Amino acid sequence: MATTDSATPEGTLNPAAAEPLSAAAAGGEAGSLRDLLVRKLIDIIVLPAARISANERSLTADILLQIADKVDEGLRIEIARRVARVPDAPPALLRMLLLDEPTVAEPIIRSAGHIPEALLIETAHGGTTAHREMLARRIDLTTSVADAMLQHNEPEIARRLLKREEFTFSPSAIDVLVSRSTDDRDLQAFLLRRRELEPAHGFMMFWWVDSERRKRILSRFALDRSILQDTLRDLYPPTFGPGATPDPIVKEILTLLDRRHRARGPNGEAVTMDTVKKMLAIAHADFSQDGVLAVSMIAGISLELAARILRDPGGEPFAVMCKSLGIARDSFFAIVAAGQSPEAPSRAEALLAVFDMMARDFARAVLRYWDWDGNPRIARITRLVAGGE
Question: Please, are residues 321 and 279 in contact by the beta-carbon 8 Å criterion?
Answer without folding.
Answer: no
